[in-house]
Specification:
By secondary structure, chain A is an alpha/beta fold. Chain A is built from 9 helices and 7 strands; from the N terminus they run H-E-H-E-H-E-H-E-H-E-H-E-H-H-H-E. The chains are: A alpha/beta, B alpha/beta.
């Protein structure tokens, strides 16, 4: 197979949760650009509508559905509707997530003071929502003996990064989910991997980076490449893991972090 | 410091959750036997009370309190009672957990079939209960600028075991809680570490191991020593991490699994 065939997704159907902005949008965009019919699930109806219209103008086959992944019934229905519309579901990016707010070195985010209700809300979206997304997607992939499930974890789930406890813990749980899930679904030819991004410039945390440009410089200092990533830089890896090209990759957690997690000591 | 001093817990105060049986009871025993005053908590007074009585009869300074770790107020009351009784808290072992039921290769445990409510119930105890335990422990330890927090995870949180999704995900999440809390609490001289036991003979899952001897055999097959661990075999690592000897061990996740993680096991036919 030539490269253009290996990455060709013509005739396939996919879903991307949290796909209306940031990393999720890059994921949706790249598989749509390579021929996949994509249903973008996102909480934010306004952004979703705008991006779906933009991608359609580019000639992509894209639908949108307003869904909060923490609402399991609506999530299940939206995934079933997407699979029904195209008669198949080949690809699922379980990407939706939230920042979790105050980091562990702030007074509001320290373990001794953090409100556990906030912690539980983040787990409900980042961890339970991603698990439910994988579950509902698997139900449509198993009968057809083909599937690609890609979970968005984070470097913050592999190392203690200073994020909120809920963010780090939920991402650790997601990164670990690939181990049992890839094993259970392998006989169905459904492959499961996770992407663990390092610092990407996105709108996460209500536009925290846009409001605090100095934070971008601080992040850049921690990365051997000395800059944060643009969401465009997610596309290659996302397409690899979603496409036929990754037919023997399963159970992996792939970091994409400009080398930052390999330079922890000195 | 000689070995006796390094592991001496005289004058120290500990709390162990899920301490009425299994590994938790072994932790409580070794801490008490090493000189600590120990509060044992459990959901069930009928299992807790006899164990507390037995340890007291051995001359150990222990007390028991019924607390479900998923009930924050009850758990807080246990921490408060410990400090009220003995004046401080030096050691907390966040051990309470449940098995999570059907494994990933059983029909009921497969992702496409499993009820999400069941998954949520397990996360509430194994993950949120441990987070609450670490929070309450930190609150008691920070003012004293000393602490040892030991989180009990599992090798199911490190590799693909055949346990339930909820069990392995929650155990991975609390390993990461250990890494993060280790970093955050280091400046308070509180060390946070994680033990990841492999298959150990306990009563978890309502005595699943007693009921299914073939499961015991299967577990033994993935361990180089060809046997399950005994709860007593977790005592050494627990005492190390709870004691002054661990003053520079922080954020570690330590498997105690008879070497199980060194093996790759072929998947069973489905």
């Amino acid at each position: 197979m030539k490269a253009n065939q290996m990455f060709d997704m013509t005739g396939q159907a996919g879903i991307v949760t949290g796909g209306a902005s940031g990393i999720g949008l890059a994921m949706a965009e790249v598989i749509a650009e390579h021929g996949c019919a994509v249903t973008i699930l996102d909480m934010n109806g306004e952004t979703l509508e705008r991006e779906v219209a933009r991608l359609r103008d580019l000639g992509c086959n894209v639908e949108g559905a307003v869904v909060n992944v923490a609402e399991f019934d609506k999530l299940e229905a939206a995934i079933a509707a997407a699979a029904k519309q195209h008669g198949r579901l080949d690809v699922c990016f379980a990407n939706a997530g939230m920042s979790g707010g105050a980091g562990m070195f702030t007074p509001e985010g320290a373990i001794e003071t953090l409100p556990l209700e906030n912690y539980r809300k983040v787990i409900a979206v980042n961890q339970n929502g991603a698990f439910a997304t994988a579950k509902f997607a698997a139900q449509h992939m198993i009968p057809r003996k083909y599937g690609r499930i890609v979970l968005t974890a984070s470097v913050a789930g592999l190392y203690a990064e200073g994020t909120s406890y809920s963010y780090g813990m939920s991402k650790a749980a997601i990164a670990h989910l690939v181990a049992p899930l890839s094993r259970q679904l392998a006989p169905h030819n459904v492959l499961v991997n996770a992407i663990a991004p390092g610092p990407f410039i996105t709108h996460i945390g209500d536009g925290y980076l846009q409001k605090n440009p100095a934070a971008i410089d601080r992040w850049a200092e921690m990365v051997p490449l000395h800059r944060m990533a643009t969401t465009e830089e997610m596309k290659g890896l996302a397409l690899l893991l979603a496409s036929p090209a990754s037919s023997y990759i399963t159970g992996e957690v792939v970091t994409i972090d400009g080398g930052s997690s390999k330079m922890r000591l000195f | 410091m000689d070995a006796k001093e390094m592991f001496d817990l005289n004058g120290q105060v500990a709390l162990v959750t899920g301490a009425a049986s299994g590994i938790g009871l072994a932790y409580a025993e070794i801490l008490a036997a090493s000189g600590a005053k120990v509060m044992l908590t459990s959901r069930h007074s009928q299992t807790l009370d006899p164990q507390v009585a037995r340890l007291k009869a051995q001359g150990l300074d222990v007390a028991g309190m019924v607390a479900d770790v998923s009930d924050y107020d009850a758990l807080k009351a246990a921490f408060d009672a410990t400090v009220a009784k003995w004046g401080k808290l030096d050691i907390a072992v966040a051990n309470a957990g449940i098995s999570g039921g059907h494994g990933i290769t059983s029909q009921e445990g497969m992702i496409e079939n499993l009820p999400l409510e069941k998954y949520l119930d397990v996360v509430a105890i194994n993950q949120h209960g441990v987070t609450a335990t670490v929070q309450l422990a930190a609150q008691k330890m920070i003012p004293n600028k000393y602490g040892r927090i030991v989180i009990i995870s599992s090798i199911a949180g490190l590799a693909s075991e055949l346990t339930s999704y909820a069990y392995s995900m929650s155990k991975a999440a609390i390993q990461h809680l250990g890494r993060m809390a280790a970093r955050q609490l280091a400046t308070h001289n509180i060390m946070v570490n994680v033990i990841a036991p492999g298959p150990v003979y306990t009563h978890i899952g309502d005595g699943a191991l007693d009921k299914y001897p073939e499961a015991v055999k299967r577990f033994a097959g993935i361990i180089p020593q060809n046997r399950l661990g005994q709860t007593d075999e977790l005592k050494g690592i627990a005492l190390l991490l709870a004691s002054p000897a661990a003053s520079f061990i922080n954020g570690a996740v330590i498997p105690v699994d008879g070497g199980a993680l060194t093996l790759r096991v072929p998947p069973r036919k489905q």
